[in-house]
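debug: dumping io for the single-chain case to check the tokenizer round-trip. Nothing else runs in this session.
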Amino acid sequence: MSTDLPDYYFRVRENGAFVFRLDTENRQRRIEMDQIAVINVKNGEVKAHGERVLSDADKAAISDWMKARTALLARRDIDDIHRAVDNMNLTAHWANTRASEDQLEDVTDDLLLAMHDLRSVLVRKKAERLMKRRSD
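debug: decoded output
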């Protein structure tokens, strides 16, 4: 472990993180993690833990982390979609070349409904974008 630890640690949770201030400046030279806040990335909410008052440095570190985390989640989101496209192609190849009748029977209805739903959403969103461009 590096001797130069950051001042803050963010324990990621589903919608954000718990924020801890790290302290190694104690007699035992142990790492102490003092929870200072809970943050919600989805709505931007930052709640100080307990009776704490967050310092300007705390707020700046939290803000920087939230910006970086939001950007990371956006990159992951689009990467997941690109993987979904790859999986759809692999699924088409599987259905065409290797799937048994029983396997196809097991998944066909679910796949058709999911693809119909996706197609409907994509067509509607494309039409909305085209209409918006025309009105601009």
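debug: round-trip ok. The chain has a mean pLDDT of 94.
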